[in-house]
């Protein structure tokens, strides 16, 4: 496989560095945006109509011609392998089947989420997903394991290895059926980085994947990230792409945030916890030397790396005082995607202004819980209103095209 080094890619990307200068009008305009409700037919109605027209013209037979969005880099796939695994278990995480045949997942508390009540959970409906992508003009979508389930922390490695291998095999089958529409990353455990490295090699060699998915909290500190060196050394050989999703790593990874289940105002405190975790991961990956030995590895942190866009103006001068020459350039080694924050226009706009629109990949968070769950139209409607045409061109199309090219993939 031929791929560009990150150093070469970033040098080429300097041509698009003007994204940092675009839309400097601040956040005031975004304050007047209509709220994206997530309900088709409201704020997403016009957006969906345009997307459907784009889809009929541009995503025909799985071939990209004039699609509205080249790749949705943040989606979740629930496999039959996971359904069968959870159905066999007698304690959480486990599957509960109701009298009507409906299925729900009962989970456990982790540092990233409270278990809460059992939630709807079923195998992903690929036919419905493809229809939805066509309706919204999405040419391709990255399919990932639902890292947020926290299995890396709640299950022993002896159970994770066969589960993740089965998931990866099943996901590969979906991609083989629809090679023009889907990309894949392998589910990988943090408890056994050497096995994870072997599975990553298999994923590239045999399954046609572009990389792997990992839990964010493995990167809460440099100490923790360094435990994954064997995996990243292998990733460097393959030019892998890592999808870093909010979630706990195995307890063997040091430096992770503790499990704190809020006892009051949990609706606010979980946001505080989650966005703090995300920013910590972005700082480890962007500002430490962890990625230095792996210039051919690309990393993507979901949800705009949480609070990170809001912290850049305080981080940069502090870094200069600490002797860091160009902290912004270091942070721009990572990609971020908005995921569910694609419904929060000013947050995405701020990330585009502070980090640069050329470091943002479109991501919708489609498919949580499996089945036919998810709606991309509100994300597109919100970003259409919040971003400039030049920013949208980068986030919807050009960044994906450049990243796929760096992985030796045609777009």
Reconstruct the topology from this structure.
Layout: H1 6-13, H2 45-58, E1 59-60, E2 63-64, E3 69-72, H3 80-88, E4 94-97, E5 103-106, E6 119-120, H4 126-135, E7 138-143, H5 151-154, H6 157-177, E8 182-187, H7 193-207, E9 211-215, H8 222-226, H9 229-238, E10 241-245, H10 266-287, E11 298-301, H11 308-321, H12 327-331, E12 335-336, H13 345-356, H14 377-386, H15 389-406
Parallel strand pairs: 3-7, 7-8, 8-9, 9-10, 10-11, 11-12
Antiparallel strand pairs: 1-2, 4-5, 5-6
Q: Explain this structure to me?
A:
With 411 residues, the protein is an alpha/beta fold. It has a single domain, classed as TIM Barrel (Alpha-Beta Barrel), CATH 3.20.20.140. Helices cover 43% and strands 11% of the residues. It contains 15 helices and twelve strands. A seven-stranded parallel beta sheet has the order 3-7-8-9-10-11-12. It has a three-stranded antiparallel beta sheet with strand order 4-5-6. Strands 1-2 form a two-stranded antiparallel ribbon. Strand 8, helix 7 and strand 9 form a beta-alpha-beta unit. Helix 3 runs antiparallel to helix 6. The longest helix is centred in the C-terminal third of the chain and has 22 residues. It is globular, with a radius of gyration of 20 Å. The N terminus is likely disordered.
What kind of sheet is the major sheet? 7 strands, parallel
Overall pLDDT confidence: 88
Strand order of the largest sheet: 3-7-8-9-10-11-12
The CATH class, by name, is Alpha Beta
* Category by helix and strand content: alpha/beta
